[in-house]
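User: tokens in, sequence out, please.
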């Protein structure tokens, strides 16, 4: 199979995009297609050979009559500006303006000099035709191609041409007043419809712009050092080992390490944290998209731009629409059946009312009102936008959610299983005690530990070797092995060294006495001789206390899986109020326990880890969270939700954002259906004379209100206080 991503634009609303998507999915050679209206992306999976752009455009033209543009997606498209007021919007605006002029002139000038009504009739008719022709042309094309015949374009066209027909009938009967009145209302129906489309498109474009600005991380230029000269270049032209200089107020263009200078770096664009951190040659790792607020630094490039964390994040967010939420799927099915039902209801009201009362004209108008009120745009635009805005809010908060479908999965979480080191604790260990065995010097124990830990990247190894120049030591090691969750072994100067927990010592042939001291205990032996142990401690993150309480408030169980000793795990459980703990586990043990916990519940089980050591558990869980994943390719690849900083409360924020999206979507659906139902009832009740404009105002006004309601998600504040 071949997967392709295209940039597509020109659809009036999500319903049009959904119908095109449904049509493409029926084509031979296409396994699956999905159009994400919010990001202007089309994802197509082909069986064998990819279609040409021309072939795709020919297929799309059978469904959509608008000026659709299609091209293969370029990641740079994600960073280009969005035009708020497009050419077709201006064209619609000028036609509406003309209609307003006609209305004012007819009401206040020609009305006094046109007793026959023919001048007013002609002006209203011309203005109405100018407003309705593009809508009706789409209906004609749909009929010609036998695709998506019954949609909102048909509803409005039927209503307007119905009003024109009534106007002609009254004019033939010399009832000038009613003739002009109905034609004016027909013009106002399509006029309000066009105004509604303009506002909807503007609000949608504004929403897209707000979301894309929320994830706008790309840096426009880099200052590269060439000899004694500084040259401005595109960040994409930088190569590994190039030197770039960044001054206060400038963005870091690529991932790298500081080799000279110092400055305070704001990582809020990536992590959501606004407190600047010091960057210098000691704290040297920096990432593209971060702002140097103060100071001056020279950075050596360690990754090309396309491999940087920020490039991957932009791509993830931009392509998050590839996976549909359940709300998106509901809307697609809803629009498919809802519009034909509205047409049928309109016909039933007309025929039933006409047959019973013989007042065919009144119930013809009632049928037209139902057509106008029944337009589904309020739902099909606002609901997908709510989920897209939630993705944008999460991005602003330093949380990358890979697709709107994961928002649904987050809402079903019943258990949160978490790792300890680096998740609930800082993962920054310090040696609290050095205990050489009898007859062993402290230097002998520590030198053995420096050797065996020199090639490991585990936080414990980094703590042991902190402040020690281990480059020469690491170069001497032979047959280094790291056994996840147990320990490490190496050959140093011809001697086999082992370091790890008590079980690992036993496997290596050395028995150690049970030890109940608090902290992480690392034993060491060399060629079968026990050298002693050290104890390291790791501080609990203050946010970990809040996370457990906040998740409990959401009726979620919190479970700890760790490779640490049972004594330490039980102490942490008591300290934080964790529901259950499993200790002294290997990564394989964690997966087994995770699967057991998943089988015990009908709700989703989330796993929170560092994205590297816990990759198997993150991948196996229903919802995988990777903590502190900035710069980690493995974390970005494996997790469903990537948390860019080390704050565990972001897991709770993800839950709140998902709940907000779901509540907003439900509110929009219920509000739209309820208001439409009320208008339907008022239309059907005899004796209630609604003006023709009211259903149009109710529909377009409601659409705009619900679109704004969805857009407000982007500006929602997070309340993480524990009551």
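Assistant: Sequence out:
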């Amino acid at each position: 199979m071949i997967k392709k991503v295209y940039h597509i634009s020109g659809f009036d609303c999500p319903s049009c995009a959904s119908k095109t998507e449904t049509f493409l999915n029926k084509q031979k050679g296409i396994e699956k297609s999905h159009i994400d209206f919010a990001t202007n992306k089309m994802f197509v999976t082909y069986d064998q050979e990819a279609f040409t752009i021309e072939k795709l455009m020919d297929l799309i033209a059978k469904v959509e009559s608008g000026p659709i543009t299609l091209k293969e997606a370029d990641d740079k498209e994600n960073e280009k500006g969005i035009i708020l007021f497009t050419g077709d919007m201006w064209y619609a605006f000028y036609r509406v303006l003309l209609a307003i002029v006609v209305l004012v002139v007819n009401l206040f000038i020609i009305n006094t000099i046109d007793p026959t009504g023919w001048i007013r009739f002609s002006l209203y008719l011309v203005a109405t035709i100018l407003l309705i022709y593009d809508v009706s042309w789409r209906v004609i094309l749909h009929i010609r191609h036998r695709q998506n015949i019954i949609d909102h374009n048909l509803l409005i066209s039927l209503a307007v041409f119905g009003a024109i027909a009534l106007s002609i009938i009254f004019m033939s009967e010399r009832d000038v007043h009613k003739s002009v009145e109905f034609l004016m209302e027909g013009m106002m129906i399509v006029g309000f419809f066009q105004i509604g489309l303009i506002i909807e498109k503007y609000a949608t474009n504004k929403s897209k712009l707000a979301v894309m600005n929320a994830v706008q991380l790309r840096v426009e230029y880099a200052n590269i050092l060439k000899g004694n000269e500084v040259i401005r270049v595109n960040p994409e032209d930088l190569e590994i080992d190039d030197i770039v200089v960044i001054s206060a107020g400038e963005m870091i263009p690529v991932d790298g390490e500081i080799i000279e200078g110092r400055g305070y770096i704001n990582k809020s664009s990536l992590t959501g944290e606004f407190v600047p951190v010091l960057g210098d040659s000691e704290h040297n790792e920096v990432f593209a998209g971060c702002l140097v607020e103060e100071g001056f630094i020279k950075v050596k490039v360690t990754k090309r731009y396309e491999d940087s964390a920020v490039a991957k994040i932009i791509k993830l967010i931009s392509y998050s629409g590839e996976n549909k939420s359940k709300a998106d799927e509901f809307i697609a099915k809803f629009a498919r059946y809802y519009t034909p039902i509205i047409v049928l209801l309109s016909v039933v009201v007309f025929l039933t009312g006409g047959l019973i009362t013989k007042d065919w004209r009144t119930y013809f108008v009632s049928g037209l009102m139902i057509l106008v009120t029944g337009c589904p745009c309020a739902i099909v635009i606002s609901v997908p936008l709510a989920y897209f805005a939630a993705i944008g809010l999460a991005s602003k908060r330093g949380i990358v959610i890979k697709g709107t479908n994961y928002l649904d999965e987050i809402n079903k979480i019943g258990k949160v299983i978490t790792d300890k080191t680096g998740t609930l604790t800082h993962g920054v260990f310090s040696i609290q005690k050095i205990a050489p065995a009898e007859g062993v010097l402290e230097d002998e124990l520590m030198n053995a530990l420096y050797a065996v830990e020199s090639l490991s990247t585990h936080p414990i190894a980094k703590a042991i070797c902190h402040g020690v120049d281990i480059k020469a030591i690491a170069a001497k090691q032979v047959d280094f092995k790291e056994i996840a969750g147990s320990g490490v072994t190496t050959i140093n100067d011809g001697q086999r060294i082992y370091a790890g927990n008590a079980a690992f010592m036993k496997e290596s042939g050395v028995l150690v006495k049970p030890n109940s001291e608090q902290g992480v205990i690392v034993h060491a032996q060399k060629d079968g001789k026990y050298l002693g142990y050290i104890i390291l401690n790791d501080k609990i993150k203050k946010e970990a206390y809040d996370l457990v309480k906040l998740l409990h408030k959401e009726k979620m169980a919190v479970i700890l899986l760790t490779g640490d000793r049972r004594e330490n795990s039980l102490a942490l459980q008591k300290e934080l109020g964790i529901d259950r703990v499993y200790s002294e586990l290997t990564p394989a043990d964690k997966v087994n326990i995770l699967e057991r916990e998943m089988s015990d519940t009908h709700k989703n089980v989330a796993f929170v880890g560092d994205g590297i050591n816990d990759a198997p558990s993150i991948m196996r869980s229903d919802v995988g969270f990777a903590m502190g994943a900035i710069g980690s390719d493995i974390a970005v690849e494996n997790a469903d939700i990537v948390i860019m900083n080390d704050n565990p409360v972001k897991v709770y924020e993800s839950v709140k954002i998902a709940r907000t999206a779901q509540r907003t979507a439900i509110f929009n659906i219920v509000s739209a259906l309820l208001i439409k139902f009320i208008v339907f009832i008022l239309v059907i009740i005899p004796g209630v004379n609604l003006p023709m404009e009211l259903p149009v105002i109710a529909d377009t006004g409601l659409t705009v209100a619900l679109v704004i309601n969805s857009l407000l998600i982007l500006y929602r504040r997070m309340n993480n206080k524990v009551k």
